[in-house]
Design a protein that fits this description.
With 191 residues, this protein is mainly β. The chain has a domain at 17-89 and 115-152: Jelly Rolls. It has one helix and twelve strands. The chain has one helix at 17-32; strands at 46-52, 57-63, 78-85, 87-94, 98-99, 105-106, 112-119, 123-126, 132-135, 142-149, 154-160, 166-173. Strand 1 (46-52) and strand 2 (57-63) form a beta hairpin.
């Protein structure tokens, strides 16, 4: 594994979503320049760690048609990803706003999954409470770079019930954005 440049900023401080997106885009340029080879796996998404330190980890992921993730979070890490090739579909959990007795919003009625298409060159940065799934619904392979800060230590996996409420299915410790999930989660790795 070659070393990607370290992100700038104070040592030890987490990167915010904007900084993570900038870092993912820099790494994407390195991949497109041929510095890192991309492979494809017909059984599951192929992935390779490009860099990790105490502040950030960086991953290269390939997606063949029909490959995707289970609805998930990133265990309290902020993140970003950028699409280098192909197109990815993303379903983002959008909590509804219902009164919770103290004027604070609570997830429930009105919650939904918002669909977005991410074409080659597109990217998104997100905070630590982001819940989404990512899929390749196109007929061509896709490639993306993902960055997390602090580095991943756990992920939770979800479903949305008929009332629009997010239901946690499982939570597991992992440093890998592609953990192998057990039965009940469709055996689908996450991103």
């Amino acid at each position: 594994m070659n070393a990607v440049r370290r992100p700038s900023g104070p040592a030890g401080s987490p990167l915010n979503p904007v900084e993570l997106l900038e870092y993912a885009r820099f790494a994407a340029e390195e991949v497109l320049a041929g510095r890192y080879p991309v492979s494809y796996d017909p059984a599951r998404r192929w992935h390779q760690r490009l860099y990790r330190d105490r502040r950030v980890d960086l991953w290269l992921i390939s997606w063949l048609p029909t490959q995707g993730t289970q609805l998930h979070d990133h265990g309290g890490s902020a993140g970003a990803y950028t699409v280098l090739a192909g197109e990815l579909a993303e379903a983002i959990y959008q909590p509804g706003v219902t009164p919770s007795g103290w004027g604070r919003p609570a997830a429930g009625a009105g919650s939904s999954l918002i669909e977005r298409r991410r074409a080659s060159g597109d990217g998104v940065g997100f905070g630590p409470h982001y819940v989404h799934d990512v899929r390749n619904l196109s007929a061509a392979p896709a490639v993306s770079v993902h960055a997390y800060s602090p580095p991943l230590t756990s992920m939770s996996f979800y479903d949305v019930d008929a009332a629009g409420v997010l239901v946690e299915l499982a939570s597991l410790p992992t440093e890998d954005p592609e953990p192998v999930l057990g039965p009940g989660l469709a055996g689908t790795p996450a991103a």
